[in-house]
Structures are given as C-alpha cells and as structure tokens.
Amino acid sequence: MAWLFLFLAGLFEVGWAVGLKYSEGFTRPLPSVLTVAAMLVSLILLGLALRSIPLGTGYAIWTGIGTIGTVVFGVIYLAEPATAARVFCVALILTGIIGLKLVSNT
C-alpha cells in the first residue's frame, strides 16, 4: 500500500506544480485553492508512504514522479520543447526511479 500512496503522492505533486503555473503567483483564487489542496494531499500521502519506505528512496521517487509528470504536461499542454536532450534527461530520471524501486527492501 505504501508504494500506491507514494505513486499517488507523486501525481498530486504534478497537480500542484501545474497549479502553481495557473494560480499566477497565488493571485487567482480557484487555482490557488486547488494548488494548496493538491500540496496537502501530496504531502499527506508522502508521509503515509514514508512509514515503510526509506526516506531517501521515497523522496527521490516522489520528486521524480513529479518532475517527469510536470515535464510531460508541459510538452503536451504548454507546447514546451521535447528536444532529444530533454527526453534523454527524463529517461535518466525514470531509470533512477525504476532502479530505486528495484533495490528497495519494501
């Protein structure tokens, strides 16, 4: 269950990262409220996951999911460039996430 919590926490991290963009510096009420809510849910789920997943592993995977998800969102919805270098770097992050999961004892 901890790994599910961690995965969901990563997805909510994507949500609040994207929300930061749309809140325009917390000047737009609805996006701001949704961003803060996503932050809270993400942190609560991360806290639950860290009950049994080692801190370094959990935090790295959480931020990795958030990073990859945010980059993918930017490419698909914000017309950010999907250069070979960016795709390669995202692949490195994904490789690290998979590696940490594979070597984890939990």
UniProtKB/TrEMBL annotation:
Checking Gene3D superfamilies in the record gives: 1.10.3730.20
Can you tell me where the transmembrane regions are? Answer: 33-50, 59-79, 85-103
Q: Which UniProt keywords apply?
A: Cell membrane, Membrane, Plasmid, Transmembrane, Transmembrane helix, Transport
Q: Where in the cell is it found?
A: Cell membrane
Q: What protein family does this chain belong to?
A: Belongs to the drug/metabolite transporter (DMT) superfamily. Small multidrug resistance (SMR) (TC 2.A.7.1) family. Gdx/SugE subfamily.
InterPro entries per record: EmrE-like, Small_drug/metabolite_transptr, Small_multidrug_res
This chain's protein is named Guanidinium exporter
Gene field:
sugE
Which topology term describes how it sits in the membrane?
Multi-pass membrane protein
Aminoacyl-tRNA synthetase as UniProt keyword = no
UniProt-listed SUPFAM superfamilies: Multidrug resistance efflux transporter EmrE
